[in-house]
Amino acid sequence: MAADNIELGDVVASRQGEHVAPGHSIARMREEGGALAPIDCERKRLIHREESVRQQSDSFRSIRTRLLEMAGDSNFVTLVVAVSPRSGGSFVARNLATAFAFDESKTSLLIDCNLRYPNQHKAFGVEPQTGGLVDFLEHPSRGIASIMYPTGVPRLRLIPSGRPRENSSEYFSSFRMRAVLDSLRCRYSDRYLFLDGPPVKGSPDARILSDLADFVVLVAGYGRDTPSSISQAVANFDPAKLAGVVFNQSP
């Protein structure tokens, strides 16, 4: 794993979600085998618990702590988006989801919402044989469980985007998309959802997805995105949802 320099900017506000009854997802997910070894995590540019990536792991734990402080006792949906392409939004999204999965009392679900250029399934080495998010939205009778894949990280599941789509906004603005997220969050009170959205620059999808999220984490490429471009990206989101800006050194 590259020695990415992660830093969380100022948190501007907080919002609490609705508390739901405890579920039973922890025990079921613990039974999954095939956990990635530390060396495999590093090849996939994922944090783990060993000393070799302690600096990166602690950075993501810090972001996790900030989000939990903002949310209180409720689980939540976090949108992670980059200011511009190749700023590392997907890298931050999967590692933040991994940091939440470190906690044995929590589970994480990462949803790849970059329908034009999906890559989370490639990063985890997952073959989405039974489809992904868009396939389910088009054919809900297949069942949501059919598109939730183990990642090799205990307590972390992935919903890949499915087949690439050009007209992605229509899916994110649909009633069915909102209903899916509400169902995924409310079914288990220990489940935390992370949406990996497309970059703010060049697409309206990040702003549309922010309406479905409780919090937004904006990723800026260190030395890549200018203060002006960061400010312009921030202006797309409700200040009450913006959790902060993460400065990432590599894509």
Distance between the termini: 12 Å
Q: Calculate Rg over CA atoms.
A: 17 Å
Q: Class by helix and strand content? A: alpha/beta
Tally of DSSP helical segments: 10
Mean pLDDT, nearest integer? 86
Please give the largest β-sheet: 8 strands, mixed
Outline the low-pLDDT stretches.
1-31
Walk me through this protein's architecture.
It is a single chain. The chain is built from 10 helices and 8 strands. The protein has 251 residues and is α/β, with parallel strands linked by helices. An 8-stranded mixed beta sheet has the order 1-8-7-2-6-3-5-4, with helices on both faces. Helix 3 crosses helix 4 (89-101).
How are the SSEs placed, and which strands pair?
Layout: E1 7-8, H1 25-30, H2 38-43, H3 54-71, E2 77-82, H4 89-101, E3 107-112, H5 120-124, H6 133-138, E4 149-150, E5 156-159, H7 169-172, H8 175-187, E6 191-196, H9 205-210, E7 215-221, H10 227-234, E8 242-248
Parallel strand pairs: 2-6, 2-7, 3-5, 3-6, 7-8
Antiparallel strand pairs: 1-8, 4-5
Helix pairs in contact: 3-4
